[in-house]
Amino acid sequence: MSLPKFEFVAPKTVAGAISLQKDNAKFIAGGTDLLVAMKRRISSPSVIIDLNKISNLKRIKWNKKDGLRIGPLITLTQLKENPLVGKHLPGLSQIVPLISAPQLQNMGTIGGNLCLDARCYYYNQPVFLKKKREPCLKAGGQVCHVVKSGNRCHAVYSGDMAAPLMALGTRVKITGYSKTKELALRKFFSGSGIKPNILKSDELLTDIIVPPQPESSGFSYRKLRLRDTLDFPLLGVAVFIDLDEKDGRCKDFCLILSAVGPSPVVVEAATKMMRGKRMTPKLMDRVAREAQKKAHPVDNAASSPGYRREMVRVLIKKAIREALIPFSKV
Amino acid sequence: MKELIILTINGIEHGVLVETHWTLLDVLRDKIGMTGTKKGCDNGECGACTVIIDGEAVLSCLILAIQAQGKDILTIEGVSQDGKPDTVQDAFVKYGGIQCGFCTPGMIMASRALLNKIPHPSTEEIKRGLSGNLCRCTGYVKIIEAVENASTTEIT
């Protein structure tokens, strides 16, 4: 299917890109999500603002205080191969192979992955297949065709980078027309399937800041999908553990679930249950059961909600064990 | 309105008049006449349209032609040297990594990009490297054998 017509601009600065933003214009980074949506006529922007000429957005820097500052236009492959990331946050580079296939890793960007639109089996069909039904909530209508009598949009945030970056305490910088702001990545998501993040149309995600990690910490991201490649997550689980090396008690714990709703879910209860405790299989099981209550998958992805919900427990336990691997060598 | 752009394809500069909404794949096939690069799903899922841009395998169906200006584009037509097939092409023929042939250009470009980065990949690395390319004749075993063989015969 060919693309709809649009005007194309490629500014060289962030300010230039923001000033070009007008009604119905879209920013393009890797294009792997937007161009597909446009081919299916799900999105038809009148102007495309290409961010790839903005060299400021393509840098990775490290300093001891702030940690890694990653430009949003860094491709997933660059993230995987970057020596600074490999040295200071090897866990982050190891996530990249879990995302899609090599060609899309070479094109897709970390910022684009965070700004990914929420997906739904109904909504993401080509427009011509949906003609006979009234528009769903995400398309500006009043109904949800997935959850009958549902009055909110259940489209799933399906990016892979958000959960692990949230677990690592990442902050993001947003640059707007007149001001910039910095906030925790967990506040970046809106909770709505209609528009999963809080970015306004004239705002850009301009920095991803991952703080330095304590040496005594472990980290893992596990993903459920039908094939071992290419698929969007049917469920994602990110775990961060900071252990007291002397007594093996948990100093800090963070558990994030993704692809079970319109936004990644921070399981606060898990942090409370784990802090100050030793990791025992029984405790892990209790935490996994508690977290399961937070997952509300609906029938809008490639496998059944029941299966995805059941797998929440399984993946959490796997992720915790994986995050504990660095400590088993001590 | 059409715009004149210059695309560097296989080392040769081509001036082409393009609409902003044309993909690199469509321009390669329909405007320049290089039909070696195949159009499969046109949605970024099958890998048939894989080309190598600035050393990385990418999908030409999800790149606007206008975005490919100033970049070094390598297509299947530019893989052979002086009329002699590339080692990967040779290996695909020798090991029967081809059935209907539709996925082959994409498979070869993805394999080429993989071997340029990892000259001697493990079987697992080859599977990962080709995981974005679909073959509907179900010929993966021979394709993987071909890439393994190309990696051992290649002088690096």
Helix content range of the residues of chain B, please?
Answer: 25-40%
Most strands sheet of chain A: 5 strands, antiparallel
Strand content of chain A: 15-25%
Which pair of protein chains has the largest interface, and what are the residue counts? A-B, 29 and 29 residues
What is the N-to-C order of secondary-structure elements of chain A (H for helix, E for strand)? EHEHEEEHHHHHHEEEEEEEHHHH
Q: Under the CATH scheme, which class of one domain in chain A?
A: Alpha Beta
Mean pLDDT of chain A: 93
Q: Which fold does the CATH topology of the largest domain in chain B refer to?
A: Ubiquitin-like (UB roll)
Number of strands of chain A: 12
Q: What is the strand and helix layout of this fold?
A:
The complex is a heterodimer of chains A (330) and B (156).
Chain A: E1 7-9, H1 14-20, E2 25-28, H2 34-39, E3 47-50, E4 60-63, E5 67-70, H3 76-81, H4 83-88, H5 90-93, H6 102-107, H7 110-114, H8 162-167, E6 171-175, E7 180-184, E8 204-210, E9 217-224, E10 235-243, E11 250-258, E12 265-266, H9 268-274, H10 281-292, H11 305-323, H12 325-328
Parallel strand pairs in A: 1-3, 2-3
Antiparallel strand pairs in A: 4-5, 5-8, 6-7, 6-8, 9-10, 10-11, 11-12
Chain B: E1 3-9, E2 12-18, H1 24-31, E3 50-53, E4 56-59, E5 72-74, H2 87-94, H3 104-117, H4 123-129, H5 140-153
Parallel strand pairs in B: 1-5
Antiparallel strand pairs in B: 1-2, 3-4, 3-5
Helix pairs in contact in B: 2-5
